[in-house]
Each structure stands twice: as C-alpha cells, then as structure tokens.
Amino acid sequence: MPTLREVQAAFARGVLDPSRAGEIAAGIMGEGIAPERRLAIYRNNVLLSLRRVLEGAFPATRRLLGSEAFARVALAFVRAAPPDRPQLVAYGRGFPGFLERRPEAATVGYVTDVARLEWAREEAYYAADAPALSATDLAAIPIARYAELRFDPHPSLRLIRSAGPVYTLWQAAIGPS
Length: 177
Description:
Elements: H1 4-16, H2 22-25, H3 35-57, H4 59-65, H5 67-80, H6 95-100, H7 103-106, H8 111-126, H9 135-139, H10 166-174
Helix pairs in contact: 3-5, 4-5, 4-8, 4-10, 8-10
C-alpha cells in the first residue's frame, strides 16, 4: 500500500503531466464523472491559477511578449517548475531564468531583464520590514568607531544587472499609471 507522500507525489505528477494521469486514475472515485475527466478539470484549474500568479508578478513581461506567447511560456514553466512551497507569493523566482532559455525571449531581447526587474520588485514588496538607519542614528556614532562599522542592506534591496535601461523599458511596457 503506497504511503500518503507517494500518493500525493503521484497526484502532482498526474496533474502537471497528462501522460502520467494513468498512475492515479484508478485511485480516483468517479461518481458520475470519469476519473480522467475529474483529473483534467483539476489540472486545468491548477495550470490556470499558476499561470495567473505569473501574470500578476510579470505584467510588463506579459505585455512585451504578448498574451499568447506569455501563456505558452508560463504554462511550460508551471509544468517544469511547480511550486515547491505552499506560498503563491513566492512562486515565480525561477521564471526569468526559464524565460531566458525560451525562443519567445529571443523576439524581445531585453524581456528577461524586465522579468528580473519584476521579480526583484515582488521580492522587495514581500521582504521583511527593517528599520532604516537615520542620519540622527549615524551622527550618534563616535567617529573613532567608523572603521569598524558594517552596514547590512535593507532586506528589500535588490540589484539588477542589465545591458539596457531596464527600468525605462519596464515603465514603457507597463504604461501610464
């Protein structure tokens, strides 16, 4: 008898890969709807929901690629890299790197840089809160201690490297706010 973990892993494989649905179809109760059909309904909901999470995190990327191309890349990403934790706000970290290896990215050369910026914005938005060092706090430190000072960047800080003006490109893709 398979363990719960094995059943859950088989279910996840069947949801993301229709060719593997047979692994679990026998264990799904039909009750008027064929098990394969039940799984297909669930699969469509999961794929659409995760694609929409990516659309929300990468709106400029979607606009630059076009809706159809973005949907293709997003669904390929969902199948290749399903969520690894139960927090949808954390889903999409690997999308810019995945996009970089796709032919759709070649049509808009800077689209992966824009996607990296959008993910950095997501991470910054959800980063832990931390107090900023004020000028008053800094002025209170004796000059003799300056050599031993070490500053930690704010948890929301992100560095994006781009060959082009990625922020300007992102703004143009998003449109007026």
